[in-house]
Specification:
Largest sheet: none
Radius of gyration: 19 Å
Number of strands: 0
Helix content: over 70%
Number of helices: 6
Order of helices and strands: HHHHHH
Oligomer: single chain
Low-confidence stretches: 1-10
Structural class: mainly alpha
């Protein structure tokens, strides 16, 4: 491709994305990924909040588990945002936007460790359902990279949900 074809001399430098995925398909996938990104960000924030504020006899185990999970969520946020960019769209990056598009509820204050665990379980299960929709949309458009990313994240969140479910079972 020549410099003229890339239009590098213009102010905007828009280079057409030609990866075999239609623009409409990419846009539909990104709509789901934006929600998944927001869900991950707000779940990370909630998990970090509970990490800081857990009290009582379950402190150590919950403190350690939430730390591992918020660190994983933080790394995943970057992967998801970069996938959105690779699909040719800007990734959202503000709390206002995240709170508008996320289906994750904010952390509750003044609750017990078991209530925190139950809240995290609900959040992971909510995110799992949303990721299944994103995976289906990506599969519909033969976007194997997004399918792979969603499959990887589903594995992580299903394990987290299992851990929280086991944590609160009696």
């Amino acid at each position: 491709m020549s410099l003229q074809e890339l239009d590098l001399k213009t102010e905007h430098r828009n280079v057409k994305l030609e990866t075999g995925l239609s623009e409409d398909g990419r846009a539909g996938i990104v709509e789901h990924l934006n929600e998944i990104l927001a869900d991950h960000y707000l779940l990370m924030l909630k998990t970090h909040n509970y990490h800081w504020n857990v009290k009582g006899p379950l402190f150590k185990s919950m403190h350690d588990l939430t730390e591992a999970q918020y660190e994983d969520l933080f790394a995943a946020i970057d992967e998801i945002a970069e996938r959105i960019r690779a699909l040719g769209f800007d990734a959202p990056g503000s709390f206002k936007t995240y709170s508008q598009i996320s289906k994750i509820e904010e952390a509750k204050s003044g609750i017990s460790a078991l209530e925190m665990a139950a809240d995290l379980l609900r959040s992971h299960e909510n995110l799992i359902r949303n990721m299944r929709e994103a995976l289906s949309k990506a599969d519909q458009h033969s976007d194997e990279v997004t399918v792979d990313l969603m499959t990887e994240r589903l594995t992580v969140h299903e394990k987290a949900a299992w851990m929280w479910r086991s944590f609160i079972e009696q």
